[in-house]
Amino acid sequence: MRGTMMWCALMVSTGCGATVQQLKTRAALDFECAEAHLDVKTIDSGTRQVEGCGKRAIYVELFNNSRYPVWMLNSDVREVAAKSASR
Fold first, then answer.
1. Domain coordinates of the chain in residue numbers?
2. Residue 69: per-residue pLDDT
C-alpha cells in the first residue's frame, strides 16, 4: 500500500498525465479541425470537453497499464448549434 501511494505521488509530482496538447492533437483528428480552433473545458480531474469547428465531444484520460496515459474519446462527436450574436 505504501509503495502504491509513493508511486501515485511520484506520478502526480512529475506531471506524467496526458497533456492538453495531446488532447488537442487527438481532437483535431476526430473533429477534422485545426487545433487552434479547439477550446478545452475541464469537467473533472480526468475528463475534458472539447469544442470547435461546430462540434463537441468528451474525452477521458486513460491509464491503460502504461506509464503513458492517453486521451480517449468517450462520447459521440456531435454537431453544435452556432452561438447566436448577442443583442
1. 16-79
2. 93
